[in-house]
Structures are given as C-alpha cells and as structure tokens.
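Async update (no meeting this week)

Hi team, since we skipped the sync, here's where things stand on the single-chain job. The sequence we agreed to prioritize is pasted below, unchanged from the tracker. I ran it this morning and attached the output directly underneath so nobody has to dig for it. Comments welcome in thread, and please keep replies under the output.
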Amino acid sequence: MKKITVLLAEDHMIVREGLRALLHLEDDIEVIAEAENGRQTVELTRKLSPAVVVMDIAMPLLNGMEATRQILHAQPATRVLILSAHSDDAYIEQVMALGASGYLIKQTAASALAKAVRAVAGGKSFFSPAVSRRLSQYEKVAGRGAAQKPHPLHLTSRETEVLQLIAEGMANKQIAAELGISIKTVEKHRQSLMDKLNVHDTAGLTRHAIAAGIIESSVQPTTG
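Output:
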C-alpha cells in the first residue's frame, strides 16, 4: 500500500510531536519531514515533494500564507492543508484564494486530522465545520458579484518576505543574509514597501504586517 506522505509545518515542537503521534497511528499515512518555519517548509517541500503539507499560518521567517503561495506556485501537485488557531474570515479567505485544499481549526477533534489528510491527498477539500459555514456564506456573497479579494497588501512574494523579517525586528544586514540578497536590494524592497503602504518607519510597516496577518500581534513594533 502506497502511503500518503506528509510534511508537518508548525513552529511549536510540542504541537508537532502531537501531530506526528496522531498520524503515526494511521497505516496509510507517513510523516516524512517536519519544519519549524515557513522558509524551511518551502525548501523541504521542493526537495521531498510530499503529497500533503499540514501548514500552520503563524510561523517565523515566512508565514504560512506566503509559504502556501510559494509552494503551490512551484509544485501545484502538492496539497496544502491549513491547521491553525486562527479562525478569522480574513485568514480563511486569503489561504483559500491562494489554493489551499483544506482548513482545520486547532480546536477541531483530533480524529479529523487523518480524515482531512486523506481527503486533500485524494483531490478533495476538507474543512472544520465552522470554516465550512463561513465559506458557504462567502461563496453566496461572491455569487452576487463580489470580487475575490487580492493578496492583502498587493505585494510581491519577495516584498512579503522582507516585510515579515522587518516586522520580526531584523536589520537590513540580517535580512540580506537570511534571503541571500544584497543589503542594497533589501533597502530597495524596504523603500518600495513604504511607498506602496504609504508609511515612513519600521513601526508603520510592522502595524501593516500585523493587520494583514503576516505576523501575530504579539510581535511588538519597533521604532525607526
């Protein structure tokens, strides 16, 4: 029997261990890798091509929404199943617009995880009951002519990456090293972000990152 290969993307080790233990009980599912941040998730997915990525949204270095966008652009055959504590409509609509195949809220019963993995691996969708209700309401509104929401800040993938790292408190030199680009390029991205978002300091960029769900509100804006 060919097993469904899964990559777990979650920055809290105790949560990852719990998810791995749950899926280990299933004969037809195999966890082949784990990632603690979004950038590692993208890299491991490109290397291993898992059938399903179980993806948290709030992760360091690269959040789950941007990781989902990059993964599905590079490897559309991989299915992304969101598993998040966030149940806000904005989060749900954004990741579904990006192409995620399912969305589980972490308060969902543990038994739903394996069912969701099987469903999305088989080309179907799977949602927590509360998410299903919200999506039904959203689709009704969309059916009446509402336009699909664009990427929240109209930013490129690289700009989104730079914005998250700025909001996490990294200096230009650190961002350049993390992304493998020059400091001058980081400075250009920072200026582009300020121009697009009409803000003039790091605190303003951080506030926008929080509002867009790129980082969590527990990250405190710095001055600058």
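Quick observations from my side:
The longest helix spans residues 129-143.
The CA atoms of residues 51 and 194 lie 38 Å apart.
Reply here if anything looks off.
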